[in-house]
Amino acid sequence: MAYTTDLIKNVSIAGHGGTGKTSLFEHLLFAGGVISRAETVESGKTTSDSTPEEIERKISIHAALAHIERNGKKINLFDTPGSSDFIGDVILSFRASEFVLLVVDCRVGVQIETIKLWRNLEKYGKPRGFFISKLDEERADFNKVLADLKEKLKVDTVPITLPMGAGSGYKGVISALNGKAYLLQGQEQLEREGEIPSEYQEQAASAKERLAEAAAEGNDTLMDKYLENGSLDNAEIECGLIEALAEHKIIPAFAGSALKNSGLIPLLDFFARIAPDPSSAKDVGIDAEGKELAIPIDADKPLSALVIKTNYDQFSGKLSWLKIIEGKLSADSEAFNLSENKKERIGKLYICQGKKLEETRELYAGDVGIVAKSPSFKTNDTITAGDNSFHYLPLRLPEPVHSVAVSAVAKKDDDKLGEQLLRASEEDRTFRYVFNAETKETVISGMGELHVNMILDKIKVNQKIEVEIHVPRVPYRETITKKAGAEYTHKKQTGGHGQYGKVLLEIAPLPRGENYNFINAIFGGAVPKNFIPGIEKGIVEGMARGTMAQYPVVDVEVKLVDGKYHPVDSSELSFKLAARNAFREAMKQANPTLLEPVMNLTVFVENQYLGDVMSDLSGKRGRILGQDSVGGIEEIRAQVPQAELLRYSIDLRSITSGTGSFNMEFDHYAPISGRIAEEVIKAAQAFKVQEAEE
Ligand SMILES: Nc1nc2c(ncn2[C@@H]2O[C@H](COP(=O)(O)OP(=O)(O)OP(=O)(O)O)[C@@H](O)[C@H]2O)c(=O)[nH]1
Ligand SMILES: [Mg+2]
Fold this sequence. Notes:
CATH class of the largest domain: Alpha Beta
Bound molecules: guanosine-5'-triphosphate, magnesium ion
Structural class: alpha+beta
Oligomer: single chain
Distance between the termini: 63 Å
Strand order of the largest sheet: 18-17-23-14-15-22-19-20
C-alpha cells in the first residue's frame, strides 16, 4: 500500500560512535513488529549492519533504511554511522528526514560527534530530539546527561519519557505524555504498558507539567488555556507539541535501553503521532540563475525527486535511493534525469527493510524509495516528470581530508583497480579518485584513514587484487623572484634543410596566483608573425617543468623582445625549441624559488587536547589564525603547509585518542627555502631517476 505524504514520517537515528544507534534501530524494528527477534551487533546479524565490512568491524559504515507501520503511519527509519569517517551517509539521511533523534550514551553524555551533528542540525533548522541510551548500565544517570546537554549545547530538553531506576535497578520508563509506565519484561520481551508505580507518580506529574508548558509555547490559544487552567489535557499537549516541534521551539528527550526493549513503544508513538511529517517540510532547489528556492513537499505537483544515495547490491546491481519531493513515482514508468538531460525508464520500484528489498507500485512525495538499474542516475541528480525550472541543491558534503596514492601490485590489475575506485566514488560522494598527471599518481581521498582503508580492503577482497599505497607527492610549484633575460639560438645543419631560430626573452615575477602572461614586444619583423605561436608553445613547455625540481612554473611574465630567423631553415619547431631553452636559461638567472601549497585547516578537539594539538601544529610549521570554544569543544583555525598534513588524520587520531576531527582546503602557494627546499629538490631528483629506470 502506498502512504500519502501526511502519513509518512522520516526519522534519522544519529550520534557519536557506539552510543547504541544500531541496537536501537534493531529493537525498534522488533517493537514495531517488523522482525520477530532482535539480533545483537556482535552477532553480525542485525538488519542495519549487514555488509561484510560492517559485520567484520562491528560498527555501522553505511546508512540503513527500514520502515515501521504504526497508527496508520509509515515511519521510515534511517540508522546512520557514528564514525566521522562516514559522515556522508549521515548527511544524506538528514536530508531525507524531517526529524533526527540524536543518541547519547547515558554513561558518557555529550561527545564530540554529538556536538558536531548538533551544529549541523542547527544550521539547517532540523527538528530533533535526544535518546539517552543504555539506562540498564551501571553508572547510568539520566539527569546528569540532561544537565550535560544544557551545559555543552545550551539546550533545555523537555523529557517525554523518564527512567525508573538505573543499572541493575532499572525497571523501565514512564511517559509524561500519556501518564503510563512501560515496564521491563523478561529477556527478549517487549516492555508492557501499565500504571505508574506510586513512587514515580510525583515525578511523572511534574514532567507532565513541564510538557504542558512546552506544548503551550507552540500555540497561542493553548497558552491562554494553560495560563487560565494551569494544565492541558493529553490531546491538547499533543497538538501543541506538534507545532512547537515543527517550529524548533522544543527539543524532546527520551530515556531507554534498546537491549532491554525499553522506552521503545513511547518512542514509536512519538514518531507516529508527533514528529513532523513531510507535508510541513521543504526541500531546497536552485533555479537557472543559481538562486535557492524553498520547495514544499507536495504530492499534487508533477514528479520531482533527488537521488540521495547510490549503492551496489550483489543481486540487484546498482540501486538508486530517491527522496520524492513532488508528485508520485510509479513502477514501470518513465522519468527524466534533469542532471544528465536523459530520459530514463523506471522499472521496478522498491522500499526496503535493511538490505531486503520489497517491491512496491507507487510512492508519494515525502517517501523514500529505491530504483534498480537506472544507468544514468547518480547521487545528487534531480529526477523529474519532464522539464523543470530548478534542480535540487546537492548534498552539502565535507571535503575529503585524507589522501593516499595507490597502485596495483601487478600492472595487469591497474584497469580493474581504476574501475573499482571509480565505482566507489560513485557510491560514496565523500570518496574521490583522481589521476594526477603532474605527479603521475592515482590519488584517492576520503574522510579518514578508516574510510580509505575500508574501501581498499573491500576492493582487495572482492576483486582479489593486491594494492600498494604510499604517501602522495605534494604538487609543488616553481617561480622566479627577479627579472632576467636570456637568448638562445637553435641551429642545426643536417643534410638538406637546416633548422634555425633565435629568441631573446625577458622574464619578470607576477603576483601570486596570476600564473602566466605573454607579451610580444618584437618590432619590425625580426621574427615573422607565423612563428610567434611556436615561440609561445616553447615557453609553455618550458614552464611545464621548472629548472629546480621539474615542478610547473607559475606567476611569470614572459616578454619576447627580439629574435632572428632564416628564410629557408626557420620553422615553428626551431622557434619552439629556441624559446623553451631561452626560457630555461632566463629562469636560472631569475633567482628561482620553490612554492608549496598551504592549506586552511580547521581542527575540532576536546579541550583537554588543545595544548597538544597546538604544539603539534607549530611543529608542522602551522600558523594559528584563531580559536573558538563551544561546549568544551575547541575549534582551531590555522594555515599549514600541505606537506605537513599528508598523514594528519593519523596524527590527530593519536594525539586525541580518536576524538579529534578536522576539515581542510587549499588556500595558497607560499615560497620555501633552506633545508626544506633542498629536501624537495633531492626527492625530485630521486623520482626522476626512478622514472628513467622504469
Ligand atoms: N547495556 C546496553 N548496551 C547497549 C545498549 N544498546 C547498545 N549497547 C551496546 O553498545 C555497543 C554499541 O552498540 P551499537 O548499537 O553498535 O552502537 P552504534 O551507535 O550503532 O555504533 P556505530 O554504528 O559504530 O556508531 C554494543 O556492544 C551494544 O551491545 C543498551 O541499551 N544497553
Ligand atoms: Mg551502528
